[in-house]
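[PROTEIN RECORD]
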Amino acid sequence: MAVSAADLHAYLRRLGWAARPAPTKDTLIELHRAHAERIPYETVWIALGDKRSVDPGESVRHLLAGRGGYCYHLNGAFGALLAWLGYEVHRHRAGVQGRPTDPREISGNHLGISVTLPDEGTWMVDLGLGDGLHEPVPLRTGRYPQGPMTFGIRPSTVAPGGWRFDHDPFGSFEGCDFAPEGTVLADFAENHRWQSTSPESGHVRVVLAARRDEKSVSELRGRVLTVIDSSGRGDTQIEGSSDYFTVLAEVFGLPLSDVDSRRKAALWARVCTDHEAYLATKR
């Protein structure tokens, strides 16, 4: 479905804008920061049994309803908003490398976007990497500190003409390679189906929420809340369902106000089962 002007205005209001701003570099940075802070990266919807497509109009509707999503939804929606504001937006097939031993390839398991600014070059704009960027970074080789993490940008060695994002050592994955050529959201439909439904998908196996701000990164992986800030990394195990849903609401901005008590109970039971299975692998 097309994204309506009314929904795009409402999207801006969720990010803190009362009026449509000019498409400048400063606006891009501020919009990205606000999005990273106010709208979570999350796979709770998968565990709840919700079904979603990669259509940006549908994604925007979910964000307006107080939910988040993963890369196809967050970058898909944000790309639509930026294009509406007048930015030159490009979509890219990309491949996230989870561990150093994993292959580097343009698998399409990630949707990336970039924005070309007059006289400012092209910038990596990405809200779909969980504990990744708080604000855009220029597509120039270098190291870019943001709060407690530092990211690297360099030419990709697996996608000629593309680029490589190297995550911080504290990050949840190794890095990501981006193809240079543009693509359309429909190209990700099959990969999205697999990632959101296959028992082998990490998004299906683990219920995850992530959010970041200027000074810290927060991630809820199952029953473990991780916070990374200037003092280092701290892990806290969530002991009860009340605490779990409080953390989702207060730390990640995910109140699940549209989810009834029965579905919340099933979600908590699922999180606990997954947690016990995880602990069993550590014994």
Remarks:
- The longest strand covers residues 88-97.
- Residues 261-282 form the longest helix (22 residues).
